[in-house]
Amino acid sequence: MQKRLIELHRQRGRLLERITVQRHALSQQLAPLQGALDVSDRTARLVQDGKAFVHKHPLGVALAILAVVLLKPGTVLRWTQRGLFAWRTWRGLHRLISGFLPNRLRNLF
């Protein structure tokens, strides 16, 4: 019985070693696919985030779709670009002014 147990432990050790080698070989063989898997993971996460956004803001999404349907898609795109440009400009100016004014006021007093 003792010899049988020892032999089973040896077999187990050899199997565990073989499994480790196979896992290492498999990870090396699958390395080129990692980029594709990362892209699919990011895509799935983006879809989930989009779904959550639609569930969280159904009225805004409905209004955006209505605007595209009622207006020409080119018009909506043009106004969206203009709005994004105005928002970025405002944000940049706000940062510039908020960083500039406190320094100027500090130097005055």
Condensed summary:
The chain has helices at 2-29, 34-56, 58-70, 73-108. It is mostly helical.
Report on this model:
The chain has 109 residues and is an all-alpha fold. It has a domain at 72-109. Helices cover 92% and strands 0% of the residues. The longest helix is centred in the last third of the chain and has 36 residues, at 73-108. The mean pLDDT is 88.
Q: How would a textbook summarize the main sheet?
A: none
- Radius of gyration, whole Å: 30 Å
H/E series:
HHHH
Q: What is the number of strand segments?
A: 0
- Helix share of residues? over 70%
Structural class comes to mainly alpha
Average of pLDDT: 88
CA-based shape = elongated
Poorly predicted regions:
none
Q: What is the count of DSSP helices, taking H or I runs of 4+ residues?
A: 4
| Terminal CA distance | 93 Å
| % residues in beta strands | under 5%
Tag the structure with descriptive keywords.
single chain; 109 residues; mainly alpha; 4 helices; 0% strand
